[in-house]
Amino acid sequence: MIITRTPFRVSFAGGGSDLREFYNKNGYGAVVSAAIKKYMYIIIHPYFHEKIRIKYSSTEDVYNIDEIKHPIVRECLKKVHINSGIEIASFADVPAGTGLGSSSAFTVGLLNALYAFQGKIVSKERLAKEACEIEIDILGEPIGKQDQYAVSYGNINYIRFNKDETVDVSPILVSVEKRRSLEQSLQLYYTGGSRSASSILTEQKNSLANKFNYNLIKDMTKLADKLLEFINDGEIAQLGSVLHKGWLLKREVSSGITNDNIDSFYHKAMELGASGGKLLGAGGTGFLLIYADNHDIIKTELGCRYFPFEIDTSGSKVIFYD
């Protein structure tokens, strides 16, 4: 039996610049994001029958790989050339579709487990790159590359997406004291519900042909560069302001990113003492990331489920092999 553990992620700045349509035109894209100690678990076990069994929200039991309905599982098995005799199950700390990169955590974690099943240890770069190939190039999902790299590597990173399709991951080093301060100031609040990111991200991709929207993403990229400077200079408290500026830009990119319910929660958090925040993921629903010096009043008055987290420093890893 093999078990992999892959973190979810929170994105601080630069979202949207990881789309190929943007970084090919701009020359590069950049994000600052962090992996968190909320995880996707993938369990793999040899299957006695010469079949493939997959357990997620549904259960599949098939003889032929092309019969598999779960697209990511199907393509990951094809990628590693496993055709039968395997049982796969997944469990997660957080529901899918809530803005924490669950789809990419599933893909990266599954690839990691499948390679371990074959007795192979592969690099974090390879896991992220192959996850991008499966999700973006093969399955045609209208997503960017940041999630795959964020969850594969772990830690807080500045991730740069280059025009030649290479990706540079630069860990942002902070002291244990500053990391704890960051974890205390940043908290998640669940607004309820889940959604598929596809429709919102498709609109966002298409909107990049519009000069106004392209410039919005360009400004968001500059915020990622600026945030890197702030953190390297020890000015972590500037994160609240950067989050707020980024959210004001992001909400203009697509009509589906926010709604009256999300706006109400965000404005109330600001009134209760937050200095900034954003809705994570493509938008519409899910988790609000809020930065505040003190969350006591926000926790009791906001009306959302409080969801504390810590920074993950390991990335995707095999935690059981027997």
Task: Describe this entry's structure for a reader.
α3 (102-117) crosses α4, α3 (102-117) crosses α5 and α4 packs antiparallel against α5 (146-153). The protein has one domain (1-322): Ribosomal Protein S5, domain 2 (2-Layer Sandwich). The chain is globular. A hairpin with a 7-residue loop joins β9 (276-279) and β10. Strands 1, 2, 3, 4, 5, 6, 7 and 12 form an eight-stranded mixed β-sheet that branches. A four-stranded antiparallel β-sheet has the order 9-10-8-11. It has helices at 20-26, 71-80, 102-117, 124-138, 146-153, 176-185, 198-207, 211-232, 239-250, 260-271, 296-301, and strands at residues 2-13, 28-46, 52-55, 59-62, 86-92, 156-162, 167-171, 186-190, 276-279, 287-291, 305-307, 317-321. The relative contact order is 0.19. The protein is α+β, with helices and mostly antiparallel strands.
